[in-house]
């Protein structure tokens, strides 16, 4: 601050000196240089400038971040300097020591120096010196920016360049630790620190009559800070926003539950993935679903030679086909409506596509629903997985990727037991083939169809109550994007043909369902248990309090990829296994759910005869 003030005052002296010299040199005949007039005029002008600069607070500016409000304040300070200067000179000398042309010239030189220095600093920072004259929106939703200086600059720059698609008004900046309160960035004042956020919001509400949004930027985008901010914003009914990732989209977007996952950002090496996808023929089953469609998008980005998508839902298939054609118009796409249970149909599609890599994402995954529809779960999750693996082998595929679940570990339900059985079936099918298999287990995916997040969002929008199964229930959560990226990384790891490697994704710490519900309520600017009630409904059919990613007897090995671990497991051959699986599938096709569940308990000992017997009695 002192350096800025010293520079501006010094430039006032230099400008007035230059003006006197110019006046002296421009007169013909060698008019003597008026030393006393120069000295009095310059000192008085510097004193007037110092007073105006201090009163205007311009020394609090960050030069390289100067904006239009700062430029206007500079003009006001120059005018104030003149007002201070004139009476001082009249008092000292009874008349103006500096002639009016000299004064005007000095003011002009000083103005150029003030703006020039700041524009040079702005040019060195952004290569756009004229941005100091661009205005931020003066109307729209009021917001406070919480974060660090660099992130504020990015938001303010993007807001300056926006049209009316997102009208927001930046009221002030809040630092993580207020080292320089009172300063301004692009004319927007720094109001204080995170610790003072509650008081700052109260002041803004009183001053403007509106509750501002709080937008998190830069260093504020950590789960710990977000939860701390949510505690404050929910008391005021303030929404919490974040800087959008896509420069073409809105500058600020609502914070998502996925942003609160306590997991550091992963920087994945995509070269191994490109090695198996770029220029290859790739087939994805269930490619219209939540996870399947994200896998399709990530595959499309790696420029495969051909991308084949299979889905049973005509709407989902239509949606992903339109998206692929819109975003990757040059990509060869083949979309097929088909049931993974239909062996003849699948074999026909696979033999036509001749995929190098197959990603099997088609599945039925709703736990309570599958308890009541055991035969459907068996036919899709077991028979469908077998058909996909066998078709991949028949079509000469090099890789087969199977999406499993944490519910396959010590399953308490039909869905988990069928996915566990599918793991065993795929391992045995690929053991006698030229296909390298990768089976990937992970937990709940935030925002996927049928997941708890859309349910909570609907319940909150309706005013509650938000229903949870049990206050102590926990689940593993991961974003769709991260889960899909790690699935492809795991696929690239498995190189040995005739083997089916089992991998688990690092899901971080399990999250209490109650905490998720409370957080989502706060994200909407409401207070849990006050504005929106939370009710406990009890565990539903087949649900567990806690999920696991591995069995106790399964050892974990580190892999070169952060977030992916390999599971060491043993599959003891059983001559009756294949016959029993076929018997199970036939029983399911004959719609005998009680007998099918009993056989499932035999084939998956972890599911156990006792659990199977309980469900058997309900279904019999």
Automatic annotation (TrEMBL):
**Family as reported in the entry's similarity comment:** Belongs to the polysaccharide synthase family.
| Matching CDD domains | UDP_invert_4-6DH_SDR_e
- Record-given protein name: Polysaccharide biosynthesis protein
Sorted alphabetically, which keywords does the UniProt record give? Membrane, Transmembrane, Transmembrane helix
Which Pfam families does the entry link to? Answer: Polysacc_synt_2 (PF02719)
InterPro entries listed in its UniProt record: NAD(P)-bd_dom_sf, Polysac_CapD-like, Polysaccharide_Synthase-Rel
Q: Which domain of life is it from?
A: Bacteria
**Which ranges carry the Polysaccharide biosynthesis protein CapD-like domain?**
282-559
Tell me if Ribonucleoprotein is a UniProt keyword of this record.
no
Q: Where are the transmembrane segments?
A: 35-59, 71-90, 102-121
């Amino acid at each position: 601050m002192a350096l800025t003030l010293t520079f501006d005052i010094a430039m006032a002296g230099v400008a007035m000196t230059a003006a006197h010299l110019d006046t002296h040199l421009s007169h013909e005949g060698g008019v003597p240089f008026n030393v006393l007039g120069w000295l009095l005029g310059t000192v008085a002008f510097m004193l007037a400038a110092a007073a105006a600069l201090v009163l205007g607070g311009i020394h609090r500016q960050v030069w390289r971040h100067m904006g239009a409000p700062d430029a206007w304040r500079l003009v006001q300070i120059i005018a104030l300097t003149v007002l201070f200067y004139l009476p001082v000179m009249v008092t000292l000398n009874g008349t103006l020591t500096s002639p009016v042309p000299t004064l005007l010239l000095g003011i002009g030189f000083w103005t150029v120096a003030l703006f020039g220095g700041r524009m040079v600093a702005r040019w060195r920072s952004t290569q756009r010196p004229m941005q100091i004259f661009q205005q931020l929106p003066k109307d729209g939703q009021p917001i406070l920016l919480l974060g660090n200086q660099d992130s504020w600059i990015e938001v303010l720059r993007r807001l300056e360049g926006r049209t009316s698609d997102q009208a927001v008004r930046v009221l002030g900046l809040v630092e993580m630790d207020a080292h320089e309160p009172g300063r301004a960035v692009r004319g927007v004042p720094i109001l204080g620190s995170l610790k003072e956020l509650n008081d700052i919001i109260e002041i803004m509400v009183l001053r403007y009559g509106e509750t501002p949004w709080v937008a998190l930027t830069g260093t504020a985008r950590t789960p710990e800070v977000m939860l701390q901010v949510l505690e404050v914003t929910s008391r005021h009914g303030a929404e919490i926003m974040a800087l959008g990732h896509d420069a073409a989209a809105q500058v600020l977007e609502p914070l998502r539950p996925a942003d609160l996952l306590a997991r550091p950002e992963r920087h994945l090496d995509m070269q191994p993935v490109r090695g198996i996808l770029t220029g290859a023929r790739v087939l994805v089953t269930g490619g219209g679903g939540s996870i399947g469609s994200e896998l399709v998008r990530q595959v499309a980005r790696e420029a495969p030679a051909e991308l084949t998508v299979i889905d049973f839902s005509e709407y989902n298939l239509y949606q992903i086909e339109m998206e692929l054609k819109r975003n990757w118009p040059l990509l060869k796409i083949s979309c097929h409506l088909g049931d993974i249970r239909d062996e003849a149909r699948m074999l026909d599609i696979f033999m036509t596509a001749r995929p190098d890599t197959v990603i099997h994402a088609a599945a039925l995954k709703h736990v309570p629903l599958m308890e009541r529809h055991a035969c459907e779960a068996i036919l899709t999750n077991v028979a469908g997985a077998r058909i996909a693996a066998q078709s991949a082998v028949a079509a000469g595929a090099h890789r087969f990727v199977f999406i499993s679940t944490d519910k396959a570990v010590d399953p308490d339900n039909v869905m988990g037991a069928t996915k566990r059985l599918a793991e065993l079936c795929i391992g045995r099918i690929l053991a006698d083939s030229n296909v390298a298999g990768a089976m990937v287990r992970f937990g709940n995916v935030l925002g996927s169809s049928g997941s708890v997040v859309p349910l909570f969002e609907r319940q909150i929008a309706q005013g509650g109550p938000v229903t949870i199964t049990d206050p102590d229930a926990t689940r593993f959560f991961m974003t769709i994007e991260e889960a899909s990226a790690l699935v492809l990384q795991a696929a690239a790891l498995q190189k040995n043909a005739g083997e089916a490697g089992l991998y688990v994704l690092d899901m971080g710490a399990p999250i209490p369902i109650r905490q998720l519900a409370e957080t989502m309520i706060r994200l909407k600017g409401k207070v849990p248990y006050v504005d929106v009630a939370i009710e406990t409904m009890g565990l539903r059919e087949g649900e567990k309090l806690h999920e696991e990613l591995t069995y106790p007897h399964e050892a974990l090995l580190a892999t070169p990829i952060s977030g992916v671990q390999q599971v060491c497991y043993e599959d003891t051959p059983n001559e009756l296994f294949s016959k029993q699986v076929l018997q199970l599938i036939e029983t399911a096709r004959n719609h005998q759910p009680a007998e099918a569940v009993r056989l499932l308990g035999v084939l998956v000992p972890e599911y156990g005869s006792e659990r199977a017997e309980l469900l058997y009695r309900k279904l019999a």
